[in-house]
């Protein structure tokens, strides 16, 4: 039996932006549901952060979620665990958006406490977001369960929260070594140690997601093999300008994309302006221009391409890492990441 593993969908993200809704819809319409049909999949396991805001969702975003995702998903059996973004309080999962908003979908079972389910005659452990209220019960079940596979919304140390940021805090992985495989949501980038797999979220949401693979996972409950299904659609793109001939440059792929133009060489300002005008005419959703004219002394210190293409969060994390602060750098980076993503929701 094959099941689909989906996580961190963040319905209602970016304050219900139509640009992002249209982009997310490409994944569901052209990748997710066609793959389920092709593979004969009838069961979906959602590993948390179904909704984006722990406080609210606007009516239009909820209507979009029902039309694009939940109504087509009504043909499938869905096991949905609560993530930290789904839970109203930070110390309990008792009040959560899936339980409140999905009552009309009888095919969806919501788990706000750790529990075991049967698939293909085998036991699987589901682990919602762990907090101070359910910590003891969760750890106890992890130790006592006979399940060989666990699926959860876990904050474990030693994995990448996003590109360039390795988590050095969170729950220790020792209790999870008993399982043959562990799948988790929460971190949006893919990362694994051979046994624990962060499968990543379905689509790009922020600049730090650029050029990072996205999609969902198909898991065989009998063989325990899994396959990542890639989402080919991109929201963010970096363009390197080096006196590029605007007449020959194809801008069609950047329509409705958020673009960063990184200027490496510009000897003719008029040609550069025509290049930028062509991009705007192609229908880019947003564009940022980065011009760095003086890199004297940098070549021996950093990789220039990596430096130019860094997103805001990577720059902040790098400054923390290179600083002489006596504060816990990992905790400081986690705080910065949380504040940064909250700030992104306001624009």
Task: Report the uncertain regions.
Answer: 294-304
CATH topology of the largest domain: Purple Acid Phosphatase, chain A, domain 2
| Overall pLDDT level | 91
Instruction: Specify the structural class.
Output: alpha/beta
Structure, described:
The chain has helices spanning 13-16, 18-39, 59-73, 97-101, 135-144, 269-281, 304-309, 312-322, 329-344, and strands spanning 2-6, 43-46, 77-81, 108-111, 115-119, 122-127, 149-153, 160-162, 165-166, 181-185, 191-192, 196-198, 215-220, 226-230, 236-242, 258-265, 286-291. The strands form 4 sheets. A 6-stranded mixed β-sheet has the order 4-3-2-1-13-14. Strand 8 (160-162) and strand 9 (165-166) form a beta hairpin. It has 3 domains: 2-230, 4-Layer Sandwich (Purple Acid Phosphatase, chain A, domain 2); 236-301; 310-347, no CATH class. The chain is built from 9 helices and 17 strands. Helix 2 runs parallel beside helix 3 (59-73) and helix 8 runs antiparallel to helix 9 (329-344). The chain is globular and about 70 Å long. The chain is of the alpha/beta class and 347 residues long.
Would you summarize the structure shown here?
29% of the residues lie in helices and 23% in strands. With 347 residues, it is of the alpha/beta class. The strands form four sheets. The protein has a six-stranded mixed beta sheet. A six-stranded mixed beta sheet has the order 5-6-7-10-12-11, covered by helices on one side. Strands 15-16-17 form a three-stranded parallel beta sheet, with no helix packed on it.
């Amino acid at each position: 039996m094959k099941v689909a593993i989906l996580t961190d969908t963040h319905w209602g993200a970016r304050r219900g932006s139509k640009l992002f809704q249209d982009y997310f819809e490409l994944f569901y319409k052209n990748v997710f549901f066609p793959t389920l049909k092709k593979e004969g999949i009838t069961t979906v396991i959602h590993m948390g952060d179904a909704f984006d805001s722990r406080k609210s969702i606007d009516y239009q975003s909820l209507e979009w979620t029902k039309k694009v995702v939940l109504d087509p998903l009504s043909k499938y059996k869905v096991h949905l665990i609560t993530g930290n973004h789904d839970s109203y309080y930070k110390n309990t999962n008792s009040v959560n958006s899936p339980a409140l908003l999905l009552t009309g979908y009888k095919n969806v079972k919501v788990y706000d406490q750790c529990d075991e389910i049967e698939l293909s005659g085998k036991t699987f452990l589901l682990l919602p977001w762990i907090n101070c209220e359910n910590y003891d019960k969760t750890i106890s079940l992890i130790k006592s369960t006979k399940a060989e596979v666990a699926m959860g919304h876990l904050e474990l140390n030693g994995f990448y929260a996003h590109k360039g940021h390795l988590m050095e805090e969170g729950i220790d992985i020792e209790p999870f070594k008993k399982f043959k495989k562990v799948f988790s949501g929460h971190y949006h980038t893919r990362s694994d140690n051979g046994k624990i797999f962060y499968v990543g979220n379905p689509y790009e949401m922020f600049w730090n997601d650029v050029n990072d693979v996205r999609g969902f996972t198909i898991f065989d409950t009998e063989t325990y093999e899994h396959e990542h299904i890639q989402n080919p659609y991109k929201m963010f793109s970096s363009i390197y300008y080096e006196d590029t001939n605007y007449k020959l440059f194809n801008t069609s792929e950047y329509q409705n994309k958020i673009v960063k133009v990184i200027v490496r060489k510009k000897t003719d300002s008029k040609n550069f302006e025509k290049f930028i005008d062509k991009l705007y005419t192609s229908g880019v959703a947003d564009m940022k221009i980065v011009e760095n004219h003086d890199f004297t002394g940098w070549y021996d210190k950093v990789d220039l391409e990596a430096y130019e293409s860094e997103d805001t969060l990577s720059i902040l994390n790098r400054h923390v890492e290179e600083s002489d602060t006596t504060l816990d750098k990992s905790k400081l980076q986690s705080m910065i990441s949380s504040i940064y993503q909250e700030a992104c929701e306001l624009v």
